[in-house]
């Protein structure tokens, strides 16, 4: 039986080597962005409001407080941000209780990183309760550490979550490869000084200097991520 893990790609020079991989969760590793929107639509319908499809791109990838605040302002719903946040998280937690689907290529990528003992962090704007439930599908053993949005004073699009993850892994941000699916997450990672590969999910991510954009995680492997650090990859659109 042959292994599904490819032979390790050649190592880069020590001064330019990949030190850690930092991965977003919703829409990047697990196909849950649609779940969030479904929950938001259902909750606001119960409040007597209809969400416009165009708002989906505004709230995707953002911290709960930002998304909840925007939707309250947009609809005029009579509910506090804290109350809405609890309601949305509770509904979402119930929805994913039976497991969540992984994005194409996610399982293989996580297995490869684990096989070659690459320090790996899950960095999400989702709350700890949600992350811990999703980890049951992703495999907690695949991550050296996890960073939750409700454990940070400032989460994405601020660089803080990625700076914290890099520091805890003992890695230099510039030698960390980040995989993200939203502009909010990409902005956070780039502000932290990390090298970023964007895999757009709900909304397109525009081209930018030093940003690599691919169509699927199936295009990303350990050799590809090492290439981000050594500068072997040019942006792909």
UniProtKB/TrEMBL annotation:
It holds the Pfam family Hydrolase. Keywords: Hydrolase. Gene3D superfamilies: HAD superfamily/HAD-like (3.40.50.1000), Putative phosphatase, domain 2 (1.10.150.240). The keyword DNA-binding does not apply. One of its GO terms (molecular function) is hydrolase activity. It comes from the Bacteria. This is Hydrolase. It comes from Streptomyces hiroshimensis.
